[in-house]
Amino acid sequence: MHRPRYAIGFLLAPILFILVFITVGCGLGGPEQSVIQKFFQSSRLRDNMTLGGMSMVAFDAAKDGVVEGFSVVSVSEPQVQPLKLKQLAAAYDEAAKASEDLNKRKLAYQDQRPNFNDDLKKVLEAERTGQKLKGKDAEFQAAWTKWREDTADVEKKKAAAREALSAERSVADLSTNNPANPIDPAQYDGEMVTRDYTINANVQTPDGQHVKKTLIVTLQQARLKSDKGDINGKWIVTRIKDVTGGAAS
Q: Can you give the residue ranges of every domain in the chain?
């Protein structure tokens, strides 16, 4: 059957695009290199499922354009930092327990006051109107103010511990994610390895222009220590920085 030339060209376009990336990667080596290639291929195809398993950032075709090819200018020496997941997880557990204990004591305090709801309404109304309470009402107001301050302090510490743990483990979770063998990185000691790839990229902008850009692509890998053998996660794209801006060609 005769196939129109434009149809053949359309079918070959994805193949040619992939060949461009294969050619770019030849001779450069390293698993990180293939991650960058796959990242830009998936971004071009808007394959969000693949991107979600390998990247913390996006190179949106509708906003950033499409990388048609690239060459590596330089690769930084690996920067290795110890993972603090176990310590941060322990700190969060401690903060969460402190919050739970305080809430139990506060509920016990409330249960010991048969007229707690009425007393609380009186305190809240006094605070709203600026009224100064006296006697037992003033004592309850002081006690409840202390409960609120203690609660705010404990919840603030809990939130900070949760945020610190989340920030530390976000890349580690994605790097070590393996549905066939799920693990909790917070149960291990380990380290985070970071490498920066500086690349020259040929980019087609959303408005159809072709520009050359210099991008710094940051990749990270979690490496966990285990009695049964080390667990090396996959490389994850965690940052893309445009350091030139590019010009139309």
A: 5-83+189-242, 85-172
